[in-house]
Write a structure and sequence with these properties.
Length: about 130
């Protein structure tokens, strides 16, 4: 029904949900492996690096949510997704150059999810 009545909107929503869930799951479920393999963090020590993700995911929508009403939902969704994408791209370049530490890597990804979670929260239909 959605595809016939609202094809463009349905395609956009599905695309946003799939990319957000793929990105979130790809990072969230492999981050412990990144920490252990690239930075030598013990398995038990990786659990402390997940707290910033939770904080960033919570604070993003709380602190940026009002901007979706004042600036506009479409502009803010685009902006938050772009900012998080740029942050992840820069972190990938720095990881490839071996210039990140476990702490700086966590900060990069926490900030990326701060913006991405705000955009993802606003992207779902009301």
């Amino acid at each position: 029904m959605f595809f016939t009545k609202y094809p463009r909107r349905t395609f956009l929503e599905i695309t946003m949900m799939v990319t957000q869930s793929f990105l979130y799951n790809a990072i969230f479920f492999t981050y412990a492996l990144v920490l252990t393999n690239f930075y030598g963090i013990t398995k038990s020590g990786t659990s402390y690096c997940f707290f910033p993700f939770a904080i960033g995911n919570l604070l993003g929508p709380l602190l940026l949510g009002h901007l979706f009403d004042t600036i506009g939902r479409r502009k803010m969704i685009f902006s938050t997704y772009m900012v998080s994408g740029v942050i992840l791209f820069v972190s990938a370049l720095l990881l490839n150059a071996s210039t990140l530490t476990a702490t700086t890597h966590t900060i990069f990804w926490c900030v990326a999810f701060f913006f991405a979670s705000a955009g993802a929260s606003a992207a779902y239909p009301p």
